[in-house]
Predict the 3D structure of the following.
Amino acid sequence: MSKLKINRLVIRTKTTDGIFGADLTFTSGLNIISAENSFGKSTCIQSIIYALGLEGTLGPSRNNPLKSALTTKLRDENENEIPVILTKIYLEISNSAGRTITILRKSDDDASRIVSVFEGALETINVEKHTDYFLKDPGSAQRERGFHYFLNNFLSITQPEVIKYDGTKTKLYLESIFCVNYVEQTRGWGGILNVTPTYLGIKDLSQNIIEYTLDLDIREIRRKREVHLETKKNLEIKWQNTLSDLETRSKSYGFFVSTRIPEKLGTKTQVYDDSDLYTFDGKENEVSLPQKIKSLQLQLSSLVDNYKNNNDNTDIDERIEQLNKLLISHENTVASLITDLDINQQYIESITKSINNTKESLRKYRDIEKLQELGSIEKFKFIENICPTCDQPINNNLLPSTVENQTLSIEDNIKYLEKTQSVFDSLLKGERVKIERKEKTVSIANNKLRELRSEIKALQRSLLSPMDSNIREIIRKEVELEKDIDNLLTLSDVEKNKKTVLNAIVVDWQFTDSLLHKLPYDGFSQKDRTKLNLLRDSFKSNLSDFGYRSTPIDLFELSTNTYKPSLDGVDIGSEASASDNIRVIWSYLYSLLMLDTCDENISTNHLGLLILDEPRQQETKDISFQMFIKKSSETFNKDKQVIIGTSEKYEDLTRMLKNLKVNLMHFDESIIRRIKK
């Protein structure tokens, strides 16, 4: 099914001596524009490309591709040169859903940056009711008011991401995708996809274009492989960082990490529940962390059993009780501060959301301002107090209708939104300062809590009230043991936390690795192989029908790198004669066009349109060209469209078209002619 069908092309050129132009109607199947050289065939074909905003397909300059007859001067019926004032190109197109629109683009350099779109067929449009889009400016393929953004949606095109030579990612723009749909007269017949917009800097551009056109799964498989490899790499870095952190923390306590935790991840890597930290005793024997903690706890228990506290400690008990109350008060204060901090964070999120909404509105208004600066005369509904949804009149405020009021202009709206954004930015800055201060307050309060807890613990120890040096020594050892035990318990918690992280990393890495191994080793799915085999077989069959003779056709394969015809792994080039090279291009592009009709289970992203300017190059034999014409006429039954511009002799052409369903538009004089009033 055709995603893009050209229905009608109307050219209206205003000159100093009246209006000139052309009116061509196209149908499904084969359409032929027949005229002698210099009569305007290429002008009409390039007008189609121009109306679609695809002049970038022709070269890096992206200059206006229209011939001088539509831009500077044309010759009238008496061969007199007449200055051109302005040319309007109307192009009526339809999509696969049957929706029809009419596109208007003007030849003037400034006006050419605006494309007007009318709903419906050209003969039914309301010239006052249209939508303007900008073109040839940044964002024309990404923003709602960009013409190629609109056209992509109209044609149901989802632009894939591709890699540029500098390593960054970009979209495969429509002017690249369209290279399989159009072959221009001068350089286009040098080879398959001989002219592509290389100025975009996309790596392997031809390969990406064909992959997209064929809708190969390898694109998604390659993307998944890159994602999985990147995920594995990030997990491996996280594993090394986590393990390194555990080793550093352990060494600070005199412990080491067992080699049971490997430095590198693998399919058999495990993280065990029991401890992997160890140290050495006085005899150089390994002692695990739990064993060391248990040994210290036994020593502490033995010390405590050696004495009892018989002193009167009433004052100390009271002080401890006071400090406990103060501790509870401070804990409540910290909790309140943290809650207040959370509220500030939520407020910041709200402000940030408002800033983003304001930026989005500002962007849309600036797009409209740009369209107006470029000369758009579209009547934007919200400016005229018309609801964009139901087309009903609306008031722009709550004042009674008797009160005179005026809608803000585009410039005023932009100024208002800029001031609004400035206010939100100021609020955001102020809130961040508040949060920074509150975070410092919370930090100070937490330090105070630690001091209170430390003082309470010291007072509890003082209850022992040592009476002699032996008891003091016992207490000193007790304090040291308690400190060592606390440190090792902290280290044990660190290990558990780190192992929780390591275990999650192992699970994620092994799962990602399993997904990676499930992908086809060469990147091609079974559906891809079926498509490529069908393309190869169709190409060979067409090549034989078109009379290719330079090399044995059976030796042709499709390169798995470029997807182009190859012999002995090398893309075909010098092996073929000039005329046979033309047959290769016919065969390949026609096979791409018709591939989704070979099997009901096969689908492609091809637009279903093929435009060829002077396809009979290098004096290709009549019989070969006749067969190409015959096959192209068969596209009518498959809801495809082929448009050909040719200077073939009319008598020869009519002979070739006998009994074929073809829309022939023949001209014995210039196609761009005076329009009678």
The chain has 14 helices and 21 strands. The longest strand covers residues 81-95. Residues 4-217+524-674 form a domain with the Rossmann fold fold (CATH 3.40.50.300).
